[in-house]
Amino acid sequence: MTLSKALKRLVENKLVIKSKALNDSRSFVLKLSETGKDLTLQAISVVEEIDDKVFGSLGTAKKEKFLSLILEFNRFN
Question: Could you report the per-residue pLDDT of 31-45, keeping only the tens digit for each?
Answer without folding.
Answer: 999 999 999 999 999
